[in-house]
Amino acid sequence: MRFTSLVMGLVAIISAAGTMPQEARAAEHKKPNILVIWGDDIGVHNISAYNHGIMGYHTPNIDRLAREGAMFTDAYGEQSCTAGRAAFMLGQHPFRTGLLTIGMPGSPHGIPDWTPTIADIMKEQGYMTAQFGKNHFGDRDNHLPTAHGFDEFFGNLYHLNAEEEPEGYYYPKDPEFRKNYGPRGVLKVAADGKIQDTGPLTRRRMETVDEEFFAAAVDYLDRAKKADKPFFIWFNTTRMHVWTHLKKESDRVTGIGLYPDGMVEHDKMVGAMLKKLEDLGMADNTIVMYSTDNGAETVTWPDGGITPFHGEKGTTFEGGHRVPLIVKWPGVIKPGTVSNEPIAHNDWMPTFASAAGMSDAVERLKRGTKLHGKDFKVHLDGYDFLPYLKGEAKKGPREEYFYFGQGGELNAVRWNDWKVNFAMIDGNIATGTRKVTGWPIIVNLRADPYEKMPFESGSYIRWYADNLWLFVPIQQKIKAFFTDFDKYPYQAGASLNAAGINYQSLKVMEALKRLQQLETLAPPGN
User: How many CB atoms lie within 10 A of CB 302?
Assistant: First the structure.
């Protein structure tokens, strides 16, 4: 079902104004507030709006967002935590920013100074900005959110299992080792540079740390209401990243398992946040987005998510990249909408910028622009979905999506409903192996969304032979992506494997030359 949206004509607005509450009428003239709520490693089918109850437990508050807004079936994060979060906050593909995988404690690798964030744009548009919960963009002071457009930050800097490493059996007990290589604590940071370390994120604290982040976010909402200014809040829970440590009140509430118990707890927090917006009279003028960073990590099941798609976090398959995505915007997005349009996390920077009043963010940043005193010139890879969300466009603007691995290798490209796999990473994020086939593997993601037919159909090879024409337009999309790399800054990525040298050896012009050579070749079999 293709996305349709409520179009409100001028006459309808005028005629309805007499019956609209004063709060709603006032909201028509204000910039929309933006509340972004993310879980961590949450699978598509861990949300009951997506799984239609097949999991046996329910997420009624997240489901409510779907009933009152739009639910996207073809939403893309990235293959891992840092990459998905970087795509959202920076509006660029993580291949450009070098944030395709995690940086370890103390590493200089993190968010670069030359790239603007979504918070930089929101500040320029007069917004209050805050981030709460998981960050994952590096742990040095220059990587912190308050150095990149946020007024304040209260949260943790790493994935949960890294936070609890110091409690492990084999972790060195030498205080100097912990000082040099251990994770920083949960930080409370202000834009004026003040940093307060509130202590380590221990296994015990993990039981309730999301409640700490929630309380800070609620306090910020109160202050935004008092200041009468629009806000941009990114609220990142630690649920449901491994390893899950539940408080007693959440343990065994579903009778199904640890992960479902955690999801019920997580959903209640989403509901409490929505209620706070209503209590403050802000709900009618607030865009609420719900999502997560990457596909489900099924290798850690039963302390891991569920996805109907092939593959998982860290792989090239849809199960590694597709995420739940639900967006509510009262008066703009038609309630109960289900969209099949492909959309990626880096689309939200230009989309939210447009909603806040900067409709030319992509063009401005390509030319070079100043955002609240800082100069930036970058290439955003995201598209402005605002006309689509408003119902002014029947289709979304995104046609392509690039599947890069943790080491920066290009593995696959989606173009409209088609996906061409040049290489496949199977397994999981830690032990996955990359396989390059003789010819690229073709999938039609509308006809075969779960990527089963290349491996299960006895008639696939005939179908494959009929669709070799795809290689030419796919190559054009790759060329277009790389063409301007010499005009804008980019950062090489980090790697957890010393064998991952492809980023360091990347030479963009050589890649372009290779693509030009490929264009002169006829598709195999012709």
Answer: 11
